[in-house]
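Journal club prep — side note

Before the paper discussion, L.F. wants everyone to see what a predicted structure for a comparable chain looks like in token form. Sequence:
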Amino acid sequence: MERRWLEIARRAAREAGQLLLAAHGRVTQVETKSNYSDLVTEVDRAAERAIASCIAREAGPGHEVLGEEACSSGESALQSADDLAAAPHVWVVDPLDGTTNFVHGIPFFAVSIAYLSRGESRVGVIYDPVRDVWYEAVRGGGFTENGEPRRVAGGDDLRQSLLASGFQYDVEAGRLNLRQFQAVAHQSRNVRALGSAALALALVAAGRLSGFWELRLGPWDMAAGALMVEEAGGRVTHLDGSPFTLGRRPDIAATNGRIHQALLSILDRAGSP
């Protein structure tokens, strides 16, 4: 059955990606959500509507959609980890991960779609429409980049590892992450702030980054990418080292597994969320 959900996710991501490409570099109206740096455009909303319509058309009744924009506006009935754990069929959707990049014409953004059953991610698709790159994972079926199997990076020395993180709209979390960013940068090859958590997680799964962490993310940012890292042989936890559970905490640490404890130790010394 997962293969059917994968095909639906592909079709939905393709439709949304075409909308994003058509509007890239042409956005004239930008709104804010929680603060001046938390951006949303009509393209985000249009892409989410396209994904939801595709899922409703292809998946049939009984399937719910948890989309970033619907949730932000209070339209979603799924508001907690318990809601996710109880639902038999949920699609967790970020129609445009990397909105700030998109608004400024930076070609690094993606569509992220995950299918969950009883709180567990079963299928994940992240689509980079600019490069036409597909990252896909099926629970128990591995991870692929454009159809080719990929595994996480093999190094076990944090000093030779390239990592990524992201900065939050929440001011206090942002200050903490600045300390963490500095601490990790001093003990690794370097750290990147890419502006798309979904793509950063996909790059960890593909072995291009050795790790990624962030303090304040929504389920839509992490659902597909966390599954990809796991299926590529990596490790995903919360920043306190507890098992990763979508919706329980807003933070994530995802690595190749070999540097995981070293990264968590540095983050802990820099300060806890």
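L.F.'s comment for the group: The chain has two domains: 2-149, 158-270. Keep this in mind when we get to the figures.
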